[in-house]
Amino acid sequence: MSDLAIGITSFPALLLLIFLRVPIGLAMFLAGLVGLILVTGDTTIPFARLKSETFTTFSSYSLSIIPMFLLMGHFATLGGMSQALFKAAEGFLGHRKGGVAMAAIGACAGFGAICGSSLATAATMSRVALPELRRSGYAGGFATATLAAGGTLGILIPPSIVLVIYAILTEQNIAKLFLAAFIPGILAALGYVLVISLYVRLYPGNAGTRPRAAWRARLRGVWDVWPVLIVFALVVGGIYAGWFTPTEGAAVGALGTGAIAWANGGLSWDSLGESFMVTARSTAMIFFIVLGAAFYNGFLALTQVPQEIALWVVDQGLSPLLVLALILVFYLLLGCLMDSLSMILLTIPIFWPVMQGLDFGFVSLIDLQSARLSDLVQSGAQIAPDVLAQAQAALAQGIELTRAQMNDIGLRGATEGALSRINTEQVAIWFGILVLIVVEVGLITPPVGMNLFIINTMDRTTPMAETYRAVLFFVASDLVRVVLLVLFPVITLALIPW
Amino acid sequence: MYSFFLKLSKLMAWLGGAMLTALIVMVCTSVLGREVNGILHADWLVSLAPGLSRWLLDLGIGPVNGDFELVESGIAFSIFAFLPLCQLTGGHATVDVFTNYLSDRVNQGLRLVTDIVFAGVMVLIAWQLWLGLASKKSSGQTTFLLEMPVWWAYALSLSGAIVAAVIACYVAAMRLREVASGRVILPIDLGANH
Amino acid sequence: QDVTLKLHQFLPAQSAVPSLILDVWADKVEADSGGRIKIDRFPSMQLGGTPPELVDQAIDGVADIVWTVVGYTPGRFPSTEVFELPFFVADPMAASYAYWKMYEADMQDQFDGLHMLGTWVHGPGLFHTTDPVNAPSDLQGMKIRGGSRMVNDMLTAVGATPVGMPVPAVSESLSKGVIDGATLPWEVTSSLKVAELVGNHTDFEGNGLYTLTFIMAMNQGAYDGLPDDLKAVIDANSGLDFSVRAAEANLGADAPSKQIAEDMGNNFITIDQATVDTDWMPLVAPIYGSWVADMDSKGYDGQAMIDRARALMAEYTAAQ
Ligand code: NA
Ligand code: NA
């Protein structure tokens, strides 16, 4: 069997293992190990790789952000931030039709701004909001579905662990990806609120209301969420403003939420120990998948499969948008069965080279030169008037500036090379956000939706089937959003500076 | 036996958490030092109070030397130390849509085979990490700035890897007993949580 | 073909060293062997691991051939650091000539398990900074990314704050102001967009600020396993000549990157020899002393290595 054939055979073998309930990380590790043994002929090379690969995978500076964000999420809960967020949102929305559910979505969005994980957001907010929803007369399935969907905001709204992994795999700027996720994240929350208001009109018996809160109580509620705002501003704002690297931001956030939890009396030796246990389990699970994926992807690279697939797709001459659509549909289908992180780790090394080879032409050289030129003019640079006029006239007619012209003007960063870097980055960011959304949809699609499971364990009285039925409305809103983001890339890319 | 291994794995998780916390504090100190160092060099402060800024700088206020490599070495220990708890409590992510349709007997068999293979893999990882440690020790490789021998971090990590391997073997042995006796001894799966 | 060799390294395929040196070498070996040797190229650490692991990957046979920066594995091959001393190298070709000669004579035991194909240094490293650097005092409080242990020592000596980070993080850190500058040879600045991110470049007349040492090496077993005629093909394409030509290609790659900075209209500062002697050398001179002491403690004669390297570089220059 040729190396390529071994590489391709490894896909069905891997899926078989996963569907036989072999832990995903272990399955990838085994596929990589056996594959390497077959390709290289004996165990020398795979074993030699293991001498350092487990250590170097676990000692990654960029990935150290993951346990830090996880710990930060637990500290935020211990500090009472999830409770405060829900109370604040409920004060404003509780008296409306479906208002308590909308408040739960709002609180999920707020918690998502300081928590990097969907499941943690779903679990934390369910603990706070589920009893309140049931007490306000919400039907079980509607309540659990609302929180399952709200949980996905944990990863759509930055910070986001899955986005960190994507950034590392595609070598993109984490801060820019966080920024790009912001508008789609807000859109997601708005979409869910819309779904709730439709749902309560379609099925009026499924929701109750609360008495209108007094303004005093509302303001009190807003006052109580200031720690959340500070932590979000410090972590996400600080990473973006360049005060620190993403890892440093996560450390600052963990220390900050820890301090708040301690000040609020939520942090004792016991609860600290409990935070360590939960962080330990989640971190170990994630890193074992990362390790398996690293090992498997190393094997795939050796068989040249990803390069061959990328070449093959380009050779088919399909339109870039069609390729993108096929990939997204693939994620939606796989997402019914697999969890988001494993999917990203498994597939991005194969799909990213494909996407990289496609030209969506977001920015043209004319756009780039015009934008750089107007920046330069605005900065008050001294440019000979006739040279400037000539250049502006050329750009207006759609004629690109020459290297000599750019030198005369003192125009920087407007070359073909700069253009291709900008376009690659834009595709990477856009694709990343789309993938993030479709894999997160997987968290709430039946039959395997991790968020659904988590919440189901918290509300044993609601049959899974009821949750499944109600969650389809939220899935529909996700799909509408994906289509919007595909058709209008500017929604994702608007905030990203070139 | 189970309670002993649970205690052991919780102890490792606690140590890993303590290391993580120490790294968080160190990174924050480094950020603070770097920012203050920048302020002390700022033109306005240097012209306003040259003696003060010089004095503070001479105290060594600045980023923690080698913060980057300390994070790398420390976090590896944390993650290896987190593995045993995940292993013992069935915390690894799985897909069970299809196995739900299979009989209990078949599922028990699958679980036995999986956990035996898992134990083999964890032993392999610990063993190869040991060989890696030996080669780093003999090669004398150090980190960039602190020139700390790389094998130190390997040795710390190996402690977690060994405990994880022992626990994986224990889990596999218990699965064997479960199949033999038909009783459930270990928790099957506490659900992934990330 | 008879043998397939895996060539693994950490840069993207289109960057200077892979495209101008490694690919050229591999193509030549394939052609000279009449197609009996095939060299599969794996850029960007595609086979897994991190750049510091490349040396071990070659020793263990995970890859058959690697190219790497010796400074990524500090402490392992201390002798090569002689070429990384500040203001030590004027001509990279001369340094690479000396490097290979010294490798053959004294360093082979340090590279046990490897069959060396080439040893060279890159073009002179220089400062790329947001604010102009005319004198060491300008570096006070500047956060500068250095590339190796020796470079960091040098940065501390001249008053800068060295910041350790991997090469790919340089662009982002510069654009965010996490660092105020970096020490790099010209050649890598184009792929890191350095000329777009900083406006000042400080170069030195005479000896360059620093250089880093490279090795291109083959797994010993993979080499020993080749039939004699294929060994001869490898031998004919490696060694002294190859090392010098690799340095020449590396140096040649500096010009296009420098051109980009010129096109940007950046500010170029060149410190003349007299100023280097009076203002810079006294600051870095202690590094020579501490390096010699460090070498002596490891059982090598540091001063002899410095003298030998200088003599060999002079020998090369004289022959030109
Ligand atoms: Na989030
Ligand atoms: Na799903």
UniProtKB/TrEMBL annotation, chain A:
Spans through the membrane: 12-39, 60-81, 101-125, 137-168, 174-200, 221-243, 249-272, 284-305, 317-337, 344-366, 427-449, 470-496
Membrane topology, record value: Multi-pass membrane protein
GO CC field: plasma membrane
Subcellular location: Cell inner membrane
Keyword list, A-Z: Cell inner membrane, Cell membrane, Membrane, Transmembrane, Transmembrane helix, Transport
Molecular function (Gene Ontology), one example: transmembrane transporter activity
Function (record text): Part of the tripartite ATP-independent periplasmic (TRAP) transport system.
Protein name: TRAP transporter, DctM subunit
UniProtKB/TrEMBL annotation, chain B:
InterPro entries noted in UniProt: DctQ
One Pfam entry name: DctQ
Subcellular location: Cell inner membrane; Cell membrane
Major subcellular location class: membrane
Residue ranges of the TM segments: 12-32, 110-131, 151-173
GO function term, MF aspect, one: transmembrane transporter activity
Any one annotated GO CC term: plasma membrane
Membrane protein topology class: Multi-pass membrane protein
Domain Tripartite ATP-independent periplasmic transporters DctQ component intervals: 51-170
Keyword entries, A-Z: Cell inner membrane, Cell membrane, Membrane, Transmembrane, Transmembrane helix, Transport
Protein's UniProt keywords contain Transmembrane helix: yes
Annotated function: Part of the tripartite ATP-independent periplasmic (TRAP) transport system.
Complexes and interactors: The complex comprises the extracytoplasmic solute receptor protein and the two transmembrane proteins.
Family: Belongs to the TRAP transporter small permease family.
Protein's recorded name: TRAP transporter small permease protein
Organism: Loktanella salsilacus
Lineage: Bacteria, Pseudomonadati, Pseudomonadota, Alphaproteobacteria, Rhodobacterales
